[in-house]
Amino acid sequence: MTIEHLLWTITAVLFVSDSCFSNFDADVHFLFYSKYEQEHHMEHNETSIHTEQKTFLRHFQNYLGEFVYGGIDGSVTTFAVVAGAAGAELSSSIVLILGFANLLADGFSMSVGAYLSQKSVRDSFDKYRATEYWEIEHMPDQEREEIREIYRAKGFEGELLDRVVDVICADKERWVDVMMKEELGLIKEHKSPFTIGATTYFSFLLVGTIPLLAYIWDYTGGFEVSLFETSSVLTGMAFIVIGFLKSYVTNTPRLKSILETLLLGTLAASMAYFVGDLLEKILA
């Protein structure tokens, strides 16, 4: 393979991997976070939920979702690059260059996106909260009537309804909290945007390095067995661990979560491998 063909193959592998896994990343984000957000809001509304679980994972539950999502994306996208490069029969040094470039750049991009997303949620909440304060200050009668309508719809009436309205409206903080939750459906998010971004990036780098371990070993000291097969086994083990952790976040059956993660990762890597193999044959 000439230098020109090699460069074209590398460029094509990166382009196809990035195109395919941008969509894959969005699909994983939707499938995982739609369920995660439902469970997360349930924890806000029912603080006693699942208190019987006393495992160490409960201590990291707040940011476990970000760790799992970062790990899924890091392992799958990096393994996709490895698979595409293996299909194109590129050397270990080139696989490492492509892999670490993907890890550092894509991981940083993902963590920044997670940070900005969470910060936007917090900023939006503060904006609506400030608006509710202004309305209570300048339109108290109208806001008081809204409280009455909210609790009338819940079945309160007569003297009991008047007492509920009086208690809520006697304290502005309580009044605003009720309006935010009952009228707008918004609950304050206490997780730090910075910690979310940092956790996502750390997980992306940590788990995303696993598909490259065999190639690192081969580059530094030589490796006698098949690099891609070894990378596949190690990545499969990472998928199993991440799938297991995902089941704690989404409260889905352990086996189902593990098989789902393995299936998605395998489909993505298979696509990249055959695309890389096809491009190598076309461009060689």
Describe the structure.
- There is one protein chain.
- The chain has 284 residues and is an all-alpha fold.
- It is 82% helix and 0% strand.
- The chain has helices at residues 3-45, 61-87, 92-138, 140-153, 158-169, 172-183, 193-208, 213-221, 227-250, 254-283.
- Helix 3 crosses helix 6 (172-183) and helix 8 (213-221) runs antiparallel to helix 9.
- The protein starts with a helix and ends with a helix.
- The relative contact order is 0.17.
* SS class: mainly alpha
Our Rg estimate from Cα atoms comes to 25 Å
Poorly predicted ranges (pLDDT <50, ≥5 residues)? 1-10, 22-28, 30-56
Number of DSSP E strands: 0
The DSSP helix count reads 10
What pattern of helices and strands is seen along the backbone? HHHHHHHHHH
Shape by Cα distribution: elongated
Distance between the termini: 6 Å
Q: Roughly how much helix do the residues carry, as a percent range?
A: over 70%
| Biggest sheet character | none
Mean pLDDT over the residues: 77
Q: What's the quaternary structure here?
A: single chain
Strand content: under 5%
Task: Write the topology of this structure.
Elements: H1 3-45, H2 61-87, H3 92-138, H4 140-153, H5 158-169, H6 172-183, H7 193-208, H8 213-221, H9 227-250, H10 254-283
